[in-house]
Amino acid sequence: xxxxxxxxxxxxxxxxxxxxxxxxxxxxxxxxxxxxxxxxxxxxxxxxxxxxxxxxxxxxxxxxxxxxxxxxxxxxxxxxxxxxxxxxxxxxxxxxxxxxxxxxxxxxxxxxxxxxxxxxxxxxxxxxxxxxxxxxxxxxxxxxxxxxxxxxxxxxxxxxxxxxxxxxxxxxxxxxxxxxxxxxxxxxxxxxxxxxxxxxxxxxxxxxxxxxxxxxxxxxxxxxxxxxxxxxxxxxxxxxxxxxxxxxxxxxxxxxxxxxxxxxxxxxxxxxxxxxxxxxxxxxxxxxxxxxxxxxxxxxxxxxxxxxxxxxxxxxxxxxxxxxxxxxxxxxxxxxxxxxxxxxxxxxxxxxxxxxxxxxxxxxxxxxxxxxxxxxxxxxxxxxxxxxxxxxxxxxxxx
Length: 399
Prior knowledge:
Elements: H1 2-9, H2 13-28, H3 41-49, H4 71-74, H5 81-89, H6 92-104, H7 106-153, H8 189-203, H9 216-229, E1 230-237, E2 248-252, H10 255-265, H11 298-310, H12 312-318, E3 322-326, E4 336-347, E5 353-370, E6 378-384, H13 387-397
């Protein structure tokens, strides 16, 4: 220790000062420019597009399929400020990702069609509300004017009544519900569907819509993930072998599963709980709505029927009662489970139920929890498997 202090004290002060000055200059000097800074921004976007995968795009790769991490959201923004700005402010990556996924995976194509369908339904609901509001306002005004005319007619029987005539109602047009922008013939099927989704979101944003830093394609991506890929519902837990499209029957007698069936079937008519055919339901539109039968609302009815006829497949797949059948143990994160659809249901007086179920999709469980006050009924959130992953999962189930 003493030798070190002696040697350091032997260094001339002038050399110490010059060394300190050199270190100060080196620390303040700017870092050399990146080799990527010589490229134009459009070229950088094209380069990054080759490595910028999006959340759940690589869901079939890796140990945890529900993590939702990707290079676009968790890696590239941390490389540099320039990469952070490019990935956060450009919609280019999300648009290309949607085109890739719709072309490669039917799950994403179906999710985009659901987005368009939901937007059209929201448009029709809005038209019905506005029509009924204008009609109620007109009826009140007509009733008020009629009473005033009666009061005036008593002293002056021949008084003109034109001043108290009701004004015609202001009705909103609904002819443009299905008139999405026409797609040129040279556009691919994926681009045409994406264009329809963009038009639908611009006309009527999704219910969970919030501002994004990139643009409309990121909004579409998030909506598909939240409303289609993700699924949440009550859980029936019983290990068994299940295959998609192979119906099976169960008898529910435990109190927690009686509650499950009561909640799942609550929106549907009483006939659906008595063994009759279960028809698809669209909230506030089908089969019940506030449209009149005297011909005043025929334009809205026509639009509604067109939307329903064009989306029969979606109605039969996503507008029927469903829940989760956890058929593999343990019941925890990243364990496969199945979304099952209730095709027929007979509920007895004691609450027990005989049900006929059809598996429609596999999911990876993302979170599972017990609902308090339900006697042990679990609820789970999960991510749908794609077609290739579902096929591989069914194959390995056989062994």
